[in-house]
Amino acid sequence: MHHIFFIFLILLATALPYSTSAQENDNMATHLGGKVDIAFKAATINSSFFITQYTDTAQLFEFMLHEDIKVDQIQINQETYKFQKNKEECGDCQLYQVVLKKALSPSDTISIQTNLRFKHYAPRENRRDYKGKIASNYGILRASEQTKWFPTIVRRPNNLPITLVEHWYTYDLEVNCPDCRNVYVGKGEPQKNGGRFVSKTASQDIMLIAGAYNWSMGASAIYLNIDEDQQKILDPLFAEICQYYEATSGIKMPTKFIFAHLPSDNKRWGGFMTYPTIVNTQKDGNKKNLEAYLSHEIAHYLFGDVYKPYSSLFWLYLESFAEYFSYKYLINYHPKVFQKEYEKLQNPKLRFVRLDEVKELHEVTGQHRYVTGAFQLLAIEKLIGEAKMMELIQTVFPKLPHTSDGYAAFIESLTEIGIKQDLIDQIEADFIKKFDLEAYKKLLNQPK
Ligand SMILES: [Zn+2]
């Protein structure tokens, strides 16, 4: 579903996972504690965040916050520090810098007090809504990790632009919202006013959903703002997709995803994933094309969370791989839906991107990320087989944090997993260096 929104997505940085190897160890992860006070009707959020377990050799502490959030005070071990705003391009956020007297150690506590006035949009008003906005639509306040509603630490040097940087935290947040029906933060079940949201597993994805909505527990997922009939359709679909992905990738899927319907007035926006929360932003609840939509979003657990994208081919590794898995699922379970995906490849306006010539992230266009790239991967699988393709995934992703040349890493990995040079040459000649619609035709009705 969200392929058709790619033009919109090109313009806007979507939220992307980022971590350094040290942060992947939960015991060593930075901890985010604090209290978040939401006055829903008055449309304000006052927060006190506490950051501990953070080490850096730099004497400059840098973090990002959403541009509408104001910083009241920054303290380190209860001593107030001056801060400055940096002009570096940050998307919808503001970069803050604090000059330290000495480098930070894990026992230091950084306290950041903030306040925010958010907006309750009237129906049909918030047409330019997207994942980077803190928005209250139709009685529900939504803040994804991309909005930076909590401080996001910037650690340098970094091989991605800061707009794509996220920081991993374990967290313990108390959220008060006396005039909310339910509040949800990060994962698990929504809670009432005064709920505490705790994660001992580090995550870069901390999503906030507060307001007037109901929720229910399904067999395969937790549903927020979803009616019973829709849940009956979604629950088996979740199970089917997760089962297929587990069997194919050999990676255990999370016990429970959270599926939220948070209607938005941006008609070109289908939804997004802030792991493990899958959000459907379509007003009608996206009753059509659920298979394509859901299988893409669920695949982002694999490509985004388990396998992290970096390098010049960042978007291929994030979006095309997720879409490739979605296609595999559709071919096996919903071949008619896959046929529609193939029709997108026939778009006469398609401008082919030479992956072997890409230098900058943005050169991989939306069309290529969501359609052509996924078909290229499917075509490569047809040539080398599924088992080798899974081996390729396991081989190439660990290389990506250490290189900017995502294409070289790809070819190097094909060699490493034992693909013969003449086959690699064929892949490059037929699918990378040129685009021939006919060459993809045999992927239809692919027997499995
Ligand atoms: Zn995606």
Can you give a write-up of this model?
Helix content is 30%, strand content 24%. It has 448 residues and is α+β, with helices and mostly antiparallel strands. The two termini are 24 Å apart. The structure holds zinc ion. Zinc ion binds next to helix 4 and helix 5. The site of zinc ion (ZN) has 4 residues, from helix 4 and helix 5.
Q: How would you sum up this structure in a few lines?
A:
The chain is an alpha+beta fold and 448 residues long. The chain has helices spanning 6-11, 21-24, 228-249, 290-302, 314-333, 335-345, 366-384, 386-396, 406-416, 421-432, 437-441; strands spanning 30-39, 44-52, 60-66, 69-76, 79-80, 84-86, 93-99, 110-117, 135-137, 140-143, 152-154, 169-176, 182-185, 195-203, 208-211, 215-217, 221-224, 257-261, 271-274, 277-280. Zinc ion binds at residues 296, 300, 319, 322.
Draw up the topology in text:
Layout lengths: L5 H6 L9 H4 L5 E10 L4 E9 L7 E7 L2 E8 L2 E2 L3 E3 L6 E7 L10 E8 L17 E3 L2 E4 L8 E3 L14 E8 L5 E4 L9 E9 L4 E4 L3 E3 L3 E4 L3 H22 L7 E5 L9 E4 L2 E4 L9 H13 L11 H20 L1 H11 L20 H19 L1 H11 L9 H11 L4 H12 L4 H5 L7
Helix pairs in contact: 3-4, 4-5, 5-6, 5-7, 7-8, 7-10
The structure holds zinc ion.
